Amino acid sequence: MPEIGVNYVYLESDIPNAYAMGFNKKNSIILLTKGLLNKMSPKGIENLIYHELGHLKEKHLLVLYIVNIFSTAVMISILTPIIPYLEQFKLNFLFIGLTGGFLTMFFVILVPGLVQKYLEYRADSYATKILGPELYKETLLELNEITNNGLEKSSYNYPSLKQRLDNISRR
Question: Where does residue 119 rank: exposed (0-12), middle (13-18), buried (19+ CB within 10 A)?
């Protein structure tokens, strides 16, 4: 493992994955699963650590924490006056619940998820600056292979392998 000034913690999980945790250098750790250590090449693991280090160096976890707090506060400040307003029209609870559910989905799930997706691209950029685009692309392809094409799926909070490779190529 590269000496990067961050502690490593190993998780007893067969699912290949790596995570970054912590807000500052003193409490930052990179978690690596047993599945990742057993299935990925040592060089691939080292390269993947630079992606996780990018999350830590750019304080992505702190950014997500602040975005989640802010989004929740905005959702609550919108819902607090809306619910009594809707109740005065004798609207049924299903409509009020759907309104609250939609606002919750938007502010508590979608907004932080889109920020998380952007931060994944930023961590990829960090790793690419250190490793170079071709080596980092190889790392992502290897990770995709050992996760049974798990990186090929896209979601609101995580870019697909194709999106990540295209983003790296544009840099």
Answer: buried
pTM: 0.86
Phi, psi at 136, each rounded to 5°:
-70, -35
d(CA 71, CA 129): 31
The C-alpha atoms of residue 147 and residue 13 are separated, in whole angstroms, by: 13
Q: What is the pLDDT of residues 87-120, one digit of tens each?
A: 676 666 777 777 778 888 888 888 999 999 999 9
Three-class HEC string of the chain = CCCCCCEEEEECCCCCCEEEECCCHHHCEEEEEHHHHHHCCHHHHHHHHHHHHHHHHCCHHHHHHHHHHHHHHHHHHHHHHHHHHHHCCCCCHHHHHHHHHHHHHHHHHHHHHHHHHHHHHHHHHHHHHHHCHHHHHHHHHHHHHHCCCHHHCCECCECCHHHHHHHHHHC
